Amino acid sequence: MSQATNTDLGLSHVALLVRDLDKSIAFYKKFANLHVIHRRQAREPLEAVAWMADGLRPFALVLVASRSLQDTPLGPFGHIGIACATREEVLNQAAEAERCGILRSKPRDDGPPVGCWTYIADPDGNTLELSFGQEIAFTSERLEGALL
User: Fold this and answer.
1) pLDDT tens string for the chain (148 positions)?
2) Threshold 0.85, pTM exceeds
3) Which residues 6+ apart lie within 8 Å of 146 measured at CB?
4) For a tag site, which of 31, 64, 78, 82 has the least CB within 10 Å?
5) Rounded to an integer, what is the distance from CA 14 to the centroid of its chain?
6) Are 15 and 69 in contact (CB under 8 A)?
7) Is the bond leading into 45 cis (omega within 30 degrees of zero)?
8) Paired residues of 131 in beta bridges
9) Smallest Cα–Cα separation from 98: which of 84, 119, 112, 81?
């Protein structure tokens, strides 16, 4: 069976159960710079679904609204990681999160390949990590070269 031209292949999304879809969309837009690329009403026990993405790669954060389903939040250590363009962006977002009372971990710099990072709580108790200087792409490229 061949891959259809308009279908995804590989790691494509992470889905989170949320209580207030609009509040969660606002959070991920503000702190992770994600934008809604798809939104729809859903059948019980779900209410609505929104896909959010950064537009840089074919990967989405799927927010699934339901007041009747129960789920375990991602965290406090398990997290969704977002790489920022600058260290200052990490520090500024951490300061804003602290002002909002949702900072889970003050920024720290662990050097390569981890870089500078901070943890922030989303409206449903999930953890968002913002980072600068992580080297996932370069670490993956070195691994691919070693395997050849």
Assistant:
1) 555 677 888 889 999 999 999 999 999 999 999 999 999 999 999 999 999 999 999 999 999 999 999 999 999 999 999 999 999 999 999 999 999 999 999 999 999 999 999 999 999 999 999 999 998 776 656 555 555 5
2) yes
3) none
4) 78
5) 8
6) no
7) yes
8) 83, 117
9) 119
Give 137's strand partners: none
What end-to-end distance do the CA atoms of the chain give, in Å?
A: 27
Locate tokens 């859903």: which residue?
42
Asked if residues 17 and 124 have their Cβ atoms less than 8 Å apart, the reply is yes
Rounded to 10°, the helix 87-100/21-32 angle is 140
